[in-house]
Amino acid sequence: MIESAVLWLLNILAIPTVGLTSVFLISFVSATLLPMGSEPAVFAVIKVNPSMFWPVILVATVGNTLGGVVDYWMGYVAKQTFAKERSSRWFGWLERFGPKTMLLGWMPGIGDPICTLAGWLKLPFWPSVFYMAIGKIVRYILMTWLLLNVPDGFWRQVGDWLA
């Protein structure tokens, strides 16, 4: 459903489905609270054009980090709008470790809410963005490297099995 919405958006904007712009948009959207992964797009573009490894990794990191900034901002605005009390003890570890917790911003399922909670708790913005970007670039480098080192025959078998 979300993937078809992204393809619809790319089509409306006349953006190719493979390229840096689509990697940026997919990485940005996947970093918000929408359940979508950007790794397949990053891997696909790099697999088709290995010489684009670093530009794709950097564009995906920037897009995903900016999506995390949107999460941070949503948490910050939500706190300003809805909450009058101090944060609960459940999120004390986030306050205790501060912006360094943004290194976990890449993790599926919990990364986006952690970025949102950072804004809610008003963790320092630029250090949070810095650690968020580190976590995300390490994820993209590691995931893409791992995927590129899987033999091509494996991906063909997966494609045949899914078809």
Structure description:
This protein has 163 residues and is mainly alpha-helical. It is built from eight helices and no strands. The mean pLDDT is 84.
Overall shape: elongated
User: What would you call the structural class?
Assistant: mainly alpha
* Helical coverage, percent range: 55-70%
Order of helices and strands: HHHHHHHH
Number of helices, where a helix is a run of at least 4 consecutive DSSP H or I residues: 8
The averaged pLDDT comes out at: 84
- Total strands: 0
Query: Any idea what the radius of gyration is?
Result: 17 Å
- The termini sit apart by 19 Å
Instruction: Give the amount of beta strand, in percent.
Output: under 5%
The poorly predicted ranges are: none
- Report on the biggest sheet: none
Keywords, please?
mainly alpha, elongated, 8 helices, 163 residues
